[in-house]
């Protein structure tokens, strides 16, 4: 059995013990967990294995696909532009991307995309992974299609399309690809080991994603939004292991990282926009980002959700392990990875793993870790 490695402040030893137990039991294959409080790392742990055969141990610099935890990084790219006054989230998308106004989307706002209320939660009809990986063609197709509902009138999680639309706005406004913007403005300045897409030189240190048990959609109406969204998003859990996915730019899903790097990036929010003396976001931008835009049963996830502008807001109906607190926001990835930003406690919690759960958001492991972390903080 691979022992858990890394640093842990003694106060958080119970969290380390849970991680070790989960790895020993096989509930975790490989994972990393990190907590940053007030700019200081109080826990940075990793353990388990990178592959099912358990021939490669998860090490300090292991990374893996984090699915929709990528969205938090893409959200920060847009919020950085907003903080600089280069984009107004209340402005119509077409003000920056005129082609998007086609077929009834002329009144769609940037805030509608950020909050999953734009009416473009997926591509119309069946789409392949290869088509989605052709970022320009796939993005043009989104611009051309009609919305599934009047923008702003309901919400439905934008599984993959969200990243293409956000990425196009970043490109139009900054003149850089989303990949380059994230590298230049977020990952490199923060020294965070995060990549949108995966260079070949990093393949050897990348843990294999292990798919979850299949979820059956039998009995669900083929015309329902959840089925249309899945069909129109090419949701194949093995994609992070595939070269085509790794070489593409998918701002909603093809980030590769570990918990240490995600905690570092998330601390931009937790520390009120300033990390190591460098200001990334204004407090006003963060306040607006965390204002509730939509809530209720999400027909694309079949889960109760609350959305701010690019972030999830806590609800016990969504993830009971996160306190219902106006100073907290979060998001996670398919299978379990999770990033919690707590501005009130100036704390960031990040979790990354390679063995996926069937749940659309979170997994049993992160439920246990987050619950124990908040229990410890309460005791302190």
TrEMBL record:
Domain Beta-lactamase-related per the UniProt entry, residue ranges: 16-358
Highest taxon of the lineage: Eukaryota
Xref: SUPFAM superfamilies: beta-lactamase/transpeptidase-like (SSF56601)
Matching InterPro entries: Beta-lactam-related, Beta-lactam/transpept-like, Beta-lactamase/esterase
Protein name as annotated: Beta-lactamase
Species this protein is from: Penicillium cinerascens
């Amino acid at each position: 059995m691979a022992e858990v490695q890394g640093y842990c402040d003694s106060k958080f030893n119970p969290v380390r013990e849970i991680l070790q137990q989960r790895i020993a039991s096989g509930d975790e294959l490989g994972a990393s967990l990190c907590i940053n409080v007030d700019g200081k790392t109080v826990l940075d742990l990793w353990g388990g294995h990178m592959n099912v055969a358990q021939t490669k141990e998860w090490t300090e610099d292991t990374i893996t696909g984090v699915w929709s935890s990528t969205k938090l990084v893409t959200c920060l790219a847009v919020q950085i532009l907003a903080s600089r006054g280069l984009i107004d989230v209340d402005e119509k998308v077409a003000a920056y991307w005129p082609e998007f106004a086609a077929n009834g989307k002329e009144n769609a706002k940037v805030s509608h995309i950020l909050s999953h209320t734009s009416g473009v939660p997926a591509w119309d009809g069946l789409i392949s992974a290869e088509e989605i990986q052709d970022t320009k063609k796939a993005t043009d197709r989104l611009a051309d299609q009609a919305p599934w509902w009047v923008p702003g009138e309901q919400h439905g999680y934008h599984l993959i399309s969200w990243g293409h639309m956000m990425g196009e706005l970043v490109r139009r406004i900054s003149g850089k690809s989303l990949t380059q913007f994230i590298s230049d403005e977020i990952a490199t300045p923060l020294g965070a080991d995060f990549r949108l897409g995966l260079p070949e030189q990093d393949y050897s240190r990348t843990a294999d994603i292990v798919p979850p048990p299949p979820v059956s959609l039998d009995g669900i109406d083929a015309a329902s939004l959840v089925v249309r969204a899945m069909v129109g998003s090419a949701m194949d859990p093995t994609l992070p292991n595939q070269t085509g996915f790794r070489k593409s730019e998918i701002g909603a899903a093809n980030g590769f990282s570990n918990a240490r790097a995600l905690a570092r990036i998330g601390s931009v929010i937790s520390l009120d926009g300033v990390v190591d003396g460098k200001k990334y976001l204004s407090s006003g931008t963060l306040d607006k980002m965390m204002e509730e835009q939509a809530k209720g049963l999400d027909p694309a996830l079949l889960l109760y959700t609350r959305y701010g502008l690019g972030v999830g807001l806590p609800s016990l109906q969504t993830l009971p392990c996160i306190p219902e607190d106006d100073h907290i926001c979060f998001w996670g990835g398919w299978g379990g990875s999770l990033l919690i930003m707590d501005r009130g406690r100036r704390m960031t919690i990040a979790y990354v793993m390679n063995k996926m759960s069937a749940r659309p958001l979170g997994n049993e492991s992160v439920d246990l870790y987050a619950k124990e972390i908040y229990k410890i903080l309460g005791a302190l």
